Predict the 3D structure of the following.
Amino acid sequence: MTEYNVLTLFPGMFSSVMGSSIWARAVKAGLIAVNPVDIRDYTTDKHRRADDYPFGGGSGMVMSAQPVDACFADIKERCPKPCVNVYMSPRGKRLTHGLVRRLSGFLCVNILCGHYEGVDERVIEKHIDLEISVGDFVLTGGEIAAMALIDACIRHVEGVLGNSDSARAESFSDALLEQPQYTRPAVFDAKPVPEVLLSGDHAKIAAYNRRMSIIETARRRPELLSETVFSGDEIEFITGTKPDNRKPRGIK
Protein backbone atom coordinates (compact mmCIF):
# COMPACT_ATOMS: atom_id res chain seq x y z
CA MET A 1 0.00 0.00 0.00
CA THR A 2 1.22 3.50 -0.87
CA GLU A 3 0.76 6.12 1.84
CA TYR A 4 0.29 9.86 1.31
CA ASN A 5 0.50 12.01 4.44
CA VAL A 6 -0.56 15.62 3.88
CA LEU A 7 0.65 18.13 6.47
CA THR A 8 -1.89 20.94 6.33
CA LEU A 9 -3.69 23.63 8.28
CA PHE A 10 -6.92 22.73 6.48
CA PRO A 11 -7.43 18.93 6.55
CA GLY A 12 -11.14 19.30 5.82
CA MET A 13 -10.37 20.33 2.25
CA PHE A 14 -9.54 16.70 1.41
CA SER A 15 -12.83 15.13 2.55
CA SER A 16 -14.69 15.46 -0.74
CA VAL A 17 -11.93 14.25 -3.07
CA MET A 18 -11.05 11.33 -0.76
CA GLY A 19 -14.63 10.09 -0.97
CA SER A 20 -14.93 10.34 -4.74
CA SER A 21 -14.02 8.43 -7.89
CA ILE A 22 -10.65 6.68 -8.17
CA TRP A 23 -9.41 7.93 -4.78
CA ALA A 24 -12.34 6.34 -2.93
CA ARG A 25 -12.04 3.03 -4.80
CA ALA A 26 -8.27 2.85 -4.24
CA VAL A 27 -8.63 3.56 -0.52
CA LYS A 28 -11.42 1.00 -0.14
CA ALA A 29 -9.32 -1.61 -1.95
CA GLY A 30 -6.40 -0.96 0.39
CA LEU A 31 -4.13 0.19 -2.44
CA ILE A 32 -3.48 3.65 -1.04
CA ALA A 33 -3.93 5.61 2.18
CA VAL A 34 -4.39 9.39 2.16
CA ASN A 35 -3.96 10.94 5.60
CA PRO A 36 -4.55 14.69 6.03
CA VAL A 37 -2.63 15.64 9.19
CA ASP A 38 -3.61 18.82 11.02
CA ILE A 39 -0.45 20.79 11.82
CA ARG A 40 -2.35 22.66 14.55
CA ASP A 41 -2.50 19.42 16.56
CA TYR A 42 1.25 19.77 17.11
CA THR A 43 1.31 23.33 18.45
CA THR A 44 2.36 24.12 22.01
CA ASP A 45 0.27 27.29 21.98
CA LYS A 46 -3.01 27.04 23.88
CA HIS A 47 -4.74 28.83 21.01
CA ARG A 48 -3.33 26.28 18.52
CA ARG A 49 -1.60 29.08 16.65
CA ALA A 50 0.60 27.81 13.81
CA ASP A 51 1.79 31.08 12.27
CA ASP A 52 3.50 34.32 13.25
CA TYR A 53 4.74 37.63 11.85
CA PRO A 54 7.87 37.45 9.66
CA PHE A 55 11.21 38.76 10.97
CA GLY A 56 12.34 41.80 9.02
CA GLY A 57 8.80 42.99 8.43
CA GLY A 58 6.62 42.50 5.41
CA SER A 59 2.99 41.69 4.85
CA GLY A 60 1.24 38.48 5.81
CA MET A 61 2.12 35.67 8.19
CA VAL A 62 4.59 32.78 8.08
CA MET A 63 3.90 29.23 9.22
CA SER A 64 5.91 28.56 12.39
CA ALA A 65 8.71 26.02 12.53
CA GLN A 66 7.75 24.34 15.82
CA PRO A 67 4.45 22.65 14.87
CA VAL A 68 5.65 21.71 11.37
CA ASP A 69 8.83 20.22 12.83
CA ALA A 70 6.90 18.25 15.45
CA CYS A 71 4.43 17.03 12.83
CA PHE A 72 7.22 15.78 10.56
CA ALA A 73 9.00 14.10 13.47
CA ASP A 74 5.87 12.15 14.35
CA ILE A 75 5.01 11.13 10.79
CA LYS A 76 8.54 10.16 9.75
CA GLU A 77 8.83 7.84 12.74
CA ARG A 78 5.97 5.65 11.51
CA CYS A 79 6.25 6.19 7.76
CA PRO A 80 7.02 3.08 5.66
CA LYS A 81 10.24 3.13 3.63
CA PRO A 82 11.25 4.24 1.07
CA CYS A 83 9.85 7.65 1.93
CA VAL A 84 10.16 11.16 0.49
CA ASN A 85 9.21 14.54 1.98
CA VAL A 86 7.99 17.22 -0.42
CA TYR A 87 6.86 20.82 -0.08
CA MET A 88 4.38 22.34 -2.52
CA SER A 89 5.97 25.66 -3.41
CA PRO A 90 5.97 28.08 -6.39
CA ARG A 91 9.78 28.08 -6.28
CA GLY A 92 9.93 24.29 -6.59
CA LYS A 93 10.74 21.93 -9.43
CA ARG A 94 7.98 21.88 -12.05
CA LEU A 95 5.70 18.86 -11.74
CA THR A 96 6.02 16.70 -14.85
CA HIS A 97 5.03 13.19 -15.85
CA GLY A 98 8.61 12.04 -15.31
CA LEU A 99 8.65 13.41 -11.76
CA VAL A 100 5.28 11.81 -11.05
CA ARG A 101 6.64 8.45 -12.19
CA ARG A 102 9.62 8.79 -9.87
CA LEU A 103 7.49 9.79 -6.88
CA SER A 104 5.11 6.90 -7.49
CA GLY A 105 7.98 4.55 -6.68
CA PHE A 106 7.95 5.55 -2.99
CA LEU A 107 5.86 3.66 -0.43
CA CYS A 108 5.31 6.88 1.51
CA VAL A 109 5.07 10.48 0.32
CA ASN A 110 4.81 13.20 2.97
CA ILE A 111 3.48 16.45 1.50
CA LEU A 112 3.78 19.78 3.31
CA CYS A 113 1.21 22.38 2.24
CA GLY A 114 2.32 25.95 2.70
CA HIS A 115 -0.06 28.78 3.45
CA TYR A 116 0.02 32.54 4.01
CA GLU A 117 3.53 33.78 3.03
CA GLY A 118 5.10 30.34 3.30
CA VAL A 119 6.88 28.22 5.91
CA ASP A 120 9.82 29.05 8.17
CA GLU A 121 12.88 28.25 6.03
CA ARG A 122 14.62 26.36 8.82
CA VAL A 123 12.03 23.58 8.87
CA ILE A 124 12.23 23.28 5.08
CA GLU A 125 16.00 22.87 5.29
CA LYS A 126 15.63 20.24 8.02
CA HIS A 127 12.93 18.01 6.55
CA ILE A 128 12.22 18.65 2.86
CA ASP A 129 13.79 16.47 0.15
CA LEU A 130 12.12 18.15 -2.80
CA GLU A 131 10.09 21.31 -3.45
CA ILE A 132 7.45 20.95 -6.18
CA SER A 133 5.53 23.56 -8.18
CA VAL A 134 2.43 22.91 -10.28
CA GLY A 135 2.93 26.05 -12.34
CA ASP A 136 4.05 29.65 -12.50
CA PHE A 137 1.10 31.09 -10.59
CA VAL A 138 0.12 31.62 -6.96
CA LEU A 139 -2.46 29.56 -5.08
CA THR A 140 -3.98 30.41 -1.70
CA GLY A 141 -2.27 27.37 -0.22
CA GLY A 142 -0.58 24.12 -1.13
CA GLU A 143 -3.63 21.91 -0.64
CA ILE A 144 -4.97 22.05 -4.20
CA ALA A 145 -1.46 21.48 -5.55
CA ALA A 146 -1.08 18.50 -3.20
CA MET A 147 -4.34 17.03 -4.50
CA ALA A 148 -3.04 17.32 -8.06
CA LEU A 149 0.21 15.61 -7.08
CA ILE A 150 -1.54 12.74 -5.30
CA ASP A 151 -4.05 12.27 -8.10
CA ALA A 152 -1.27 12.03 -10.68
CA CYS A 153 0.79 9.63 -8.53
CA ILE A 154 -1.94 7.18 -7.56
CA ARG A 155 -2.70 6.49 -11.22
CA HIS A 156 0.66 4.68 -11.32
CA VAL A 157 -0.04 2.54 -8.27
CA GLU A 158 -0.63 -1.01 -9.47
CA GLY A 159 -4.31 -1.92 -9.46
CA VAL A 160 -5.69 1.59 -9.02
CA LEU A 161 -6.86 2.07 -12.62
CA GLY A 162 -7.90 -1.55 -13.05
CA ASN A 163 -6.23 -1.66 -16.47
CA SER A 164 -2.43 -1.57 -16.48
CA ASP A 165 -2.47 -0.16 -20.02
CA SER A 166 -4.49 2.92 -19.04
CA ALA A 167 -1.69 4.90 -17.36
CA ARG A 168 0.82 3.92 -20.04
CA ALA A 169 -1.47 5.06 -22.86
CA GLU A 170 -2.36 8.47 -21.42
CA SER A 171 -0.93 11.84 -22.43
CA PHE A 172 2.74 12.38 -21.48
CA SER A 173 3.43 8.66 -20.98
CA ASP A 174 5.89 8.84 -23.88
CA ALA A 175 6.13 12.66 -23.88
CA LEU A 176 3.27 12.90 -26.40
CA LEU A 177 -0.20 14.30 -25.89
CA GLU A 178 -3.12 11.93 -26.21
CA GLN A 179 -5.00 11.71 -29.49
CA PRO A 180 -8.54 13.19 -29.77
CA GLN A 181 -11.19 10.90 -28.26
CA TYR A 182 -14.75 10.19 -29.44
CA THR A 183 -17.79 8.29 -28.19
CA ARG A 184 -21.36 7.69 -29.38
CA PRO A 185 -23.17 8.90 -31.39
CA ALA A 186 -21.06 8.31 -34.50
CA VAL A 187 -22.36 11.59 -35.94
CA PHE A 188 -22.91 14.69 -33.81
CA ASP A 189 -23.84 18.12 -35.10
CA ALA A 190 -23.19 16.84 -38.64
CA LYS A 191 -19.62 15.87 -37.68
CA PRO A 192 -18.78 12.16 -37.98
CA VAL A 193 -16.23 10.20 -36.00
CA PRO A 194 -13.10 9.46 -38.12
CA GLU A 195 -13.97 6.42 -40.21
CA VAL A 196 -10.88 4.42 -39.24
CA LEU A 197 -12.03 4.32 -35.60
CA LEU A 198 -15.18 2.47 -36.68
CA SER A 199 -13.33 -0.02 -38.90
CA GLY A 200 -12.54 -2.62 -36.25
CA ASP A 201 -9.01 -2.92 -37.67
CA HIS A 202 -6.88 -2.62 -34.52
CA ALA A 203 -3.59 -2.17 -36.37
CA LYS A 204 -4.98 0.71 -38.45
CA ILE A 205 -6.59 2.26 -35.38
CA ALA A 206 -3.31 2.09 -33.42
CA ALA A 207 -1.41 3.66 -36.32
CA TYR A 208 -4.04 6.40 -36.66
CA ASN A 209 -3.98 7.15 -32.92
CA ARG A 210 -0.20 7.34 -32.92
CA ARG A 211 -0.25 9.73 -35.87
CA MET A 212 -2.90 11.96 -34.28
CA SER A 213 -1.01 11.94 -30.98
CA ILE A 214 2.11 13.21 -32.73
CA ILE A 215 0.13 15.84 -34.65
CA GLU A 216 -1.60 17.10 -31.49
CA THR A 217 1.77 17.40 -29.75
CA ALA A 218 3.35 19.18 -32.72
CA ARG A 219 0.46 21.66 -32.85
CA ARG A 220 -0.06 22.32 -29.14
CA ARG A 221 3.14 21.41 -27.25
CA PRO A 222 5.99 21.18 -29.80
CA GLU A 223 8.63 21.44 -27.06
CA LEU A 224 7.71 17.88 -26.01
CA LEU A 225 8.75 16.36 -29.35
CA SER A 226 12.43 16.37 -28.45
CA GLU A 227 11.75 13.73 -25.78
CA THR A 228 10.40 11.09 -28.20
CA VAL A 229 12.04 8.97 -30.91
CA PHE A 230 10.24 9.05 -34.30
CA SER A 231 10.40 7.07 -37.51
CA GLY A 232 11.34 8.71 -40.81
CA ASP A 233 7.70 8.86 -41.94
CA GLU A 234 6.65 10.43 -38.64
CA ILE A 235 9.34 13.09 -38.87
CA GLU A 236 8.10 13.92 -42.37
CA PHE A 237 4.56 14.75 -41.34
CA ILE A 238 5.73 16.49 -38.14
CA THR A 239 7.60 19.04 -40.26
CA GLY A 240 4.40 19.73 -42.19
CA THR A 241 2.29 20.34 -39.07
CA LYS A 242 1.65 23.95 -38.20
CA PRO A 243 1.47 25.04 -34.53
CA ASP A 244 -1.93 25.96 -33.10
CA ASN A 245 -1.64 29.69 -32.42
CA ARG A 246 -5.33 30.29 -31.81
CA LYS A 247 -6.14 32.29 -28.68
CA PRO A 248 -8.48 30.67 -26.15
CA ARG A 249 -12.05 31.87 -26.56
CA GLY A 250 -12.88 34.91 -24.45
CA ILE A 251 -9.22 35.68 -23.64
CA LYS A 252 -7.60 38.66 -25.31
About this structure: The chain has two domains: 2-154, 187-239. The mean pLDDT is 91. The chain has nine helices and nine strands. The beta strands are 2-8, 32-38, 51-52, 62-63, 83-94, 108-113, 130-133, 187-188, 191-192.
